[in-house]
Amino acid sequence: MEKFTIYKGTSVPVMNDNIDTDQIIPKQFLKAIDKKGFGKNLFYEWRYLKDYDENPDFILNAPKYKKASLLISGDNFGSGSSREHAAWALSDYGFRAIIAGSYSDIFYNNALKNGLLPIKQPREVLNQLTKLSSQEEITIDLPHQLIITSLGDFHFEIDPIWKDKLINGLDDIGITLQYEEAISAYEQKNQ
Q1: Total count of domains within the chain
Q2: What GO CC annotations are associated with the protein?
Q3: CA-to-CA distance for 123 and 141, rounded, in angstroms?
Q4: Is 118 helix (H, G, I), strand (E, B) or coil?
Q5: In which region does residue 88 sit, left (phi positive, over 0), alpha (psi from -120 to 50) or beta (all else)?
């Protein structure tokens, strides 16, 4: 998993509440188990009209938001099914963090497990962030738990264990591999 310490990127506001995992990545695209390739179909039913013709009315298709890597959204983001593919699609598209009012518990944990930082903020802060220019960079400082903007700095909470995992780029396999020598020694001893 890629380390997440201090990240700078531009943002795109998709301020709907209750964006569910089927809207993030529709079920017809869940046939693969590799984490790559899902970004093309992110928000498929909103982004495209037919045959991948871009919907000019969907904000991610606006040229000024094409390189956004921070998604700002409303409450209850990632509700619906438990598909991990939703986090994969957001990451594969290029998002590194989501700033929303709240998340479904399963999506929140799936995002963290895949190195995608879900940040909770109150509606007042979300509304302020949507006023930023599409070209203005936002800094996410995970060690200090801050969102840094020209409008001010906004603190966020994160479980210290997840914070440590993200800062060190450790998923569950990475954590296990830290004990590789001890595991090998145990296996040698108990053959």
Answers
A1: 1
A2: 3-isopropylmalate dehydratase complex
A3: 20
A4: strand
A5: alpha
Instruction: Find all residues with CB under 8 Å of 191, minimum gap 6, and list them.
Output: none
Tell whether 164 is covered by a domain: no
Under 8 Å between Cβ of 100 and 77: yes
> In the block, which residue shows the tokens 């509440």?
17
Q: What is the CATH number of the domain that holds 13?
A: 3.20.19.10
Of 59, 151, 56, 157, nearest to 102 (Cα)? 157
User: Does the pTM of the predicted model rise above 0.85?
Assistant: yes
User: In angstroms, what CA-CA distances link 172 with 19, 43, 88, 112, 113?
Assistant: 27, 28, 16, 11, 8
pLDDT digits (tens, 9 = 90+) for 131-180: 999 999 999 999 999 999 999 999 999 999 999 999 999 998 888 998 99
Nearest residue to 39 (alpha-carbon basis) of 9, 79, 69: 69
Whole-angstrom distance, CA of residue 61 vs CA of residue 58: 6
Token look-up 């929140």 returns 108
